[in-house]
Amino acid sequence: MAFGAGRREGRRPSLPGSGAGPRPEPDAESPALSPRDATDAPIPADAPPRPARRPGNPRLLAGLLLLGGLAAGAALADAVAGLLGHDAFAPDLFSRFEPPSAAHPLGTDELGRDILLRLLYGARVSLAVGLATALAASVVGTLAGVVAAWRGGLVDALVMRLADALLALPALPLLVVLAAIDPARLGLPARGEGLGTAGADILRITLILALFGWVGVARLSRAAALSVLARDHIRAARALGATEARVLRRHVLPNILAPVAVATALAVGGAVLAESVLSFLGLGIQPPAPSWGNMLANAQELVFAAPLSALWPGLAILLTVTGCNLVADGLRRR
Amino acid sequence: MARLIAARLAQMAVLLALLSFAAYMLIGLMPGDPVDLAIMADPRLTAADAARLRALHGLDQPLLARYGAWALAVLHGEFGFSRLYARPAAAVLWPALGSTLVLLAASLSLAILVGVGLGALAALRPRLAPFVEALALLGQAVPTFWLGMLLIILFAVDLGWLPAGGEADAPGLLAALRFLALPVATLAIANLAAYARHSAAALETALREPWIRSARARGASEEQVLWRHAAPNAAVPVLTIAALDAGALVSGALVTETVFARPGMGKLIYDAVMGNDYNLALLALLLTAAVTVLSGLAADLAQRALDPRLRDA
Amino acid sequence: MPAAEPVAAAPRRWYRWRMRRRSTLLLAGTLPLSLARPLARPALAQPAARDTLTIGITQFPSTFHPNIEAMVAKSYVLGFCHRPLTAYDADWKLVPMSCEALPTLENGLAVREEAPGGKPGLRLTYRLREGLRWGDGTPVSSADLRFAWEAGRDSATGFGGAEFYRSAHALDVVDARTVTLHLDKVTFDFASMGDFVPLPAHIERARWEADRHGYRSRSAYETETANPGLWNGPFRVAEVQPGAGVTLERNPEWRGPEPAFRRIRIRTVENTAALEAQLLAGQVDMVAGELGLPLDQTLALQRRTGERFRFAFRSGLAYEHIDCNLDTPILADRRVRQALLHAADRARINERLFGGKQTIAQTSVNPLDGVFDEGVRRYPYDPARAAALLEEAGWRPGPDGLRRNAAGETLSLSLMTTAGNRTREAVQQVLQGMWRQVGVETRIRNEPPRVFFSETMSKRRFAGLAQYAWLSAPEGVPRSTLHSDEIPRAERNWSGQNYTGFRNAEMDALLEALPIELDRDRRTALWHRLQAIYAEELPALPLWFYADAHIWPQWLEGVRPTGHLNLSTLWAEQWRGR
C-alpha cells in the first residue's frame, strides 16, 4: 500500500457526512489554523439534509456584526484618536495605569498610553495577521486540493503525502523554530529592512502560520472536488466538449467555495490566537507596533498590578475568534 | 489490518527521517551557535576560548557533516548527550515525557467527559444547545495563558485552595491531584469544544436513525437508547479527535507548562531549540512526531473496531 | 474547586454544575473583579517550625559543574554548596573563602618572580582552611586544587574561560593544605581566584583521566549530582528535579557556622507572573533578587501587599547603556551623542518606571565602586542644551519638527534592543518620545536576544543605537569594551566586544596601564582619567545600574545581596529565620 494511503481511507468516512479527516487541533493554545470543525462541515452533496433551524441565519449575522464592528474599529482608529485627542504611541509617564475615565475610556497602560486606542491599532495588526494567514492558507490549500483531485495519480499522491507529513509534525515546536530562525540566512527580507518592522513581522508570522495552515484546506477541497468531479453533470459537460478549465471554473470551484469559506473563517480566528501564543513566547509582533497578542503578553506580567490591561486584549481576541466561529457556523448551516 | 499497520510504520520511518533532517537544518539556521550562547552568558570568554570550544563540540564542521554524524549515531541507538543538561538526551527526556503524559491523560479525560457530557446535553435538550455552543465557543476562543493566569489568581492566590503551579512537593495521590487541578482544568477547557460539538452532532444524527426508532418502539427507555444505542456511534469521532489531540498535546502544551511551571515536553523542546541543543531537540521532536503518527494509527484501529462498516473497507 | 468532584456517577447533575460554574467563570466576568481585592493576607499558613526555606528563581541551573558554562542560576545554587577560594563580598571587597588568607606582597604570600620567557610573574601561596571537608568526610586538600588546575590547563576538558589557566603556568603542592601557584603576569587583582575552585579529586580525577573529551558529560556533578562528596559548603545537593528545582540539605561535614535551615528548596518558575502567584500563594517563601521579578513588577507587588514581605533593592554591576555605533556618520559627531544624553530624562524614567531604585550611571563605573570619580562630568536633563549642541553640529529643525542637516538629511537613527524584554522595550519607547521632543527621530528595531547578541552586536551590524547591559566584577577593567584592539573585525574572527568601534589612544594606554598598576592611589587616578574620557566621548550613553529586587518573608534575616557575580548564597550560613 502506498505511503499514507491507509490513513486517509481509514479515517475519512468515519465522521458523519464529512469529506475529510479532522485536523489535529493541538491544545487550543497551539495554533489551530485549520480547525477540525472546518473539516467536518457536511458537504452539500452527500450530507443528509439538516432540519431547517431558524430562518435568517442569526449566527452568520451575529458573527458578521462582531467582526464588522472590530474591523470598523480598526479602520476608525485614527478618527477615534483625533476624537480623544491622544497619541496611541506616545508614552506619558505621568499617567500610567490610569483607571477608565472620560479621557481614557478603557484606562491607560504601563506607559500611560490609551488602551482603547492601542486596542484599535492592535486590531489592524492582529486582523491583518488573521486575514492574511487565512487567505494564504485557503488559496494555497484550495489550489493544491483541487489540482490533486483533478489530476489524480502522482500529483495527488505527492500532495496528499506532503499533507500527511505536515499533519504528523509537532506543530507548536516547529512554529517556534521557524519563528526563531534568522530570515536573512534564508534570503528573506530581514527584520526592519524594506518593509516597516511591523510589516516584516506580519509577513513572517503569516508565512509561518500558512505553512501549516494550508493542509486542512487542501484535504477539504480535494475531497469536495473529488465528489463534484464524480457527478454525472460533470461527465455530461465534458462529453459536451467543455474544456477542463471551464469544468474547474464553472463546476468545481463554485461547489467547493462553501466549505473553503467555512475553513477560512475559522482560520482567521486560529491565526489571531496563534499570534498571541507567539507573542507570549516573545516571537510575535514586536513593539512599538501594538498587536492584541503582544498587549496581552505584556499585560500578563503585570496581571496582578493592572488586571484590566490584560482583560481588554484578551476580550478582543475572544470576540474575534467567537465572531469567526459564528460566521463559520452560519456559513455551514446555510 | 496488518497491511495497514505495516504501511503506517513504514510511513512513519520515512517521515521521521525527513523531519530529523529538516529540524537539524532549521536549528542550524537559527542565529548563533552553542558557543555564541555561552559567550552571551559569560563575557569573560575570549575569542581563543570560543575557537577552542567550537572545535571541542565539533561546531567547526559543516552542518551537513554534523547531521550525517548524528544520523549515523542514532542508527546505532546513540542519541548523544544533551548540551544544555550535560547528560544523555534520553535521560533528560523521560521525566519530561512522564510529566506531560500525566497532564495529557488527565486533561484529555476531563475534556472528553465534560465535552461529551455537554454534547449529549445539547443533543437531548435542544433548548440548551445554544448555551452549550456558547460555552464551547468561549473555551476555544480564550487564550490559554490568560485562562491559566485567571485560574491561578482565583483559586491559588485569592482563595488559596490550590497550588499556583509546580510539581507536587509531597508524595501521595492527593498532593499530585492538587497540583494537577489547575493546569488540567486549563487544558481541558481549551480543548473540550470539539468534543462537545462532535458528540452533539453524532448523537443528533444517530438519534434520527431508523434502528433507534425501532429500539424506542421496542420500549427501550430514553437512557437506554442514549447510552446503549446512540453513544457507541458518537464514540467514533470522539476517539478520532482524542487520538489527534493526544499527539498534538505531547509537544503542544508549552504555554500551560510555562504558566504552571511544569517541566514537560513542550517546555523541554522549546528550551532545547532555543538553547541549540541539537541532540535533545531532535530526539524530542522525533518522539513527539512518532507519538502523533502512532496515535493516529490507534485512532484508525479503534474506529475499525467500533464501526463495522469500516472493517470491510 | 474540589478536584475530586464525583463526576462520572451523576452525569446529569454534573452537567448543570459544570455549566453554572463555567458561566460564572467566563461569562459574568467575576474573575477580574476579584483581582481588585487586597492580597495582603497569606493564602497558606506558614508551618510553625521553619526548618525549610523555599526560594523562587526564574532560571533552572541546567549544569552543576563549577567550571563548565557560566549561568546565574548555577552560581546561585553552588553558592550554598560549593565554596571558592576567594570571593567579593557584599561590600565589594575581596575576602578569603576556603583559603586562610589572601596573598599580598606585604604578607609574603605573593612574591614577584620571573615567569618563563622573562615576563614579570608572581608566585602565590594559598593555604586551605582547617577542617574543610567534602560532604562524604574527605578533607578538601591540595590534591583537589591540583586536579582543578590540571583539568583547566588541558584544553580537551572544555572549561569555559581558559584565560586563568593560560596564565597560571605551574602549581606546586607544598603540603596537604598548601599550594603555590605561578602566574605569568602581575595584575592588581592577582589574589582573586575567581572560578579556580577545588574540585573533589577523589571522585572526579578518575573520570577525567578516563575520557578528557567526554569529561563534561561524565563528571559526577552531572551524573550523580546528589553525591555528597561533591559539595563542601554548608549545604549539599540532595535532589534535582530537572527543569523544576533543586533541593538542598544541610551538609553534616560543614565546620563553619551552623546554618539555620535544615533544607533549602529552590524552585524554578520562569514566567514572572507565575512566580509572583506562587509567592502570593505561599508556595515560595522568597524570591531571589539575583534571578527574580522585574523591578516594576516588584514595586507594584510592594504597593499591594504592604507589610507581608520585606523588600530590598540592591544596585549592582549590571550596567544598562546604549551603544552608539561610532562608524555611523550621525553618531560620529560627539556633540550629537552628548545632545542625546542631555535630552534623555533618565531621572524621570527612573522615578516613574522604577520608583527611583536604579542608580543613574555617569559612565560604566558604578558609584558604589571605590574608584568612582565624584567629579565626573554629568549630563542632567537639559533639552535646551541638547538643542544647542545639535544646532552646533549642523542639525536644524525642519517643517515636521525633525532636524535636518545642510544636505537635507533627516536626523534619524535606529534604536535596537532585545525583543521580549518588557522593561527594556518600555524604556526604549519612552526614550523615543523624549528624543522626538528635540527633533531626533528614532526607529525602533528589536531582535530576539540570540540574534541581537550573536549576530548584530558581535558583528557590529547595528547602524545606530543599541540598548543592553554589561555585567562586570568590582573594579573590572573594561578593556574588552573600550580598547581599540577589541573592535570586532572579520580578520580577527569577530573577537572583542568594543561594539561601538571606540578608538582613543589615551584610553588604550589607560586600559593597558590599569591592570598592572598595583598602587591603589595611582590606580585610582588612572580610573578617574578613564571616566573623564568616557563621560566626554560617550561611546555609549550611560543609563543606569540595575537594582535587583529581593523579596523576603518578614521572618528571614541575614541575607546580604552583593550586586555582583559572587551571589548572596555564598554567605547562606548567616541567613536566619525568626
What's the helix and strand layout?
The complex is a heterotrimer of chains A (334), B (313) and C (578).
Chain A: H1 5-11, H2 36-39, H3 58-75, H4 77-84, H5 115-151, H6 153-167, H7 171-180, H8 197-229, H9 232-239, H10 244-280, H11 292-301, H12 307-333
Helix pairs in contact in A: 3-5, 3-12, 5-6, 5-8, 5-10, 5-12, 6-8, 7-8, 8-10, 10-11, 10-12, 11-12
Chain B: H1 2-29, H2 34-41, H3 47-56, H4 63-75, H5 89-124, H6 129-141, H7 144-158, H8 173-207, H9 210-217, H10 222-252, H11 254-259, H12 265-274, H13 278-306, H14 308-311
Chain C: H1 11-27, H2 30-34, E1 52-57, H3 72-81, E2 86-88, E3 94-96, E4 110-114, E5 120-127, H4 142-153, H5 163-167, E6 168-175, E7 178-183, H6 201-210, H7 215-218, H8 220-223, E8 235-241, E9 245-250, E10 263-268, H9 272-280, E11 286-287, H10 295-305, E12 309-324, H11 329-332, H12 334-343, H13 346-354, E13 359-360, H14 383-392, E14 396-397, E15 403-404, E16 412-416, H15 422-437, E17 441-444, H16 449-457, E18 465-470, H17 479-482, H18 505-513, H19 520-537, E19 540-553, E20 556-557, E21 576-577
Helix pairs in contact in C: 4-6, 12-14, 18-19
Main location (chain A): membrane
Domain ABC transmembrane type-1 (chain A): 123-328
Region (Disordered) (chain A): 1-55
